[in-house]
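Let's practice the habit of predicting before peeking. Look at the sequence and jot down your guess about where helices and strands might fall. Then scroll down.
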Amino acid sequence: MERKVIVIVGPTCSGKTELGLLLAGAINSEIISADSRQFYKHLNIGTAKPGQNILRKIKHHFIDSLNPGEYYNASKFEKDALGICEKLILNNKIPIIVGGSGLYIKAVIDGIFNSADLDVDYRNYLINQKELFGNEYIYNELIKVDPESASKMLPQNWKRVLRALEVYHQTGEKIWKQQQKHKRSLNLKFYQYGLKWEREKLYRNIEERVDKMIKDGLVEEVINILTIGFDKNLNSLNTVGYKEIISYLDEEITFERAVELIKRNTRRYAKRQLTWFRKDNRIKWFDIKSENEFDGISEKIINSNL
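Done guessing? Here is the structure:
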């Protein structure tokens, strides 16, 4: 019997949450969130996290599972999410993965290796070097020890550069060799579906969502997070919506400019998400023109998978 997993992807503000909820309700299943910023407690409004009334109706995994200062990565998500998939399948449920964090979804479907655990001191050293001397400096450090991997990266992709340096530092091997060793054998069939809007309509959705976030109290949410004692420089807060409000609170920009930047940066993020997902020809895309189409799309997915 085929062991199925449904995956719903797409850019921010495309309706992934709405479709996921319809599917989960229709087939009595649960949702595995692949929206990495929704993992963090206290980050509610700015991440468009489902409300408590929704979370009580449909079980979600990973939402509110971390404190803002906790470290988590795609490799850990791969292991944890696959474990949940196995439990759901054993209970005769089809797991539904929903989210826009492309690397996390890729980790579950195709695998990602984690041969070297995080060395916090070395990571902090590399970040300090980057801040002092720039992306090009650490990129040149990678060229010295692993020119093959460096040739497949760009200096601005500094997180990938850092990871490659970490792997070499801790294992003595080049990251591409470690990647070759990482193989999985999964008896799972992933059915991927993407939601795509006309760009102008998607951008209007983004504008409306940002306005609603401000109205719902995004500024107050950020103030509360900082008041609790979480550092404004945490990676979890280096997120569209939060970083701009922090700049406003630090009096670096005006409130109007902060809102303008949130909208602009969200549009850019949506564009990057689409670029990522379009590379995967296994995704079946639905062209969306209005929210009224989600019921029909849910039925199509169910009819093709059950």
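How did you do? The beta strands are 4-9, 31-33, 60-61, 96-98, 189-197, 284-288.
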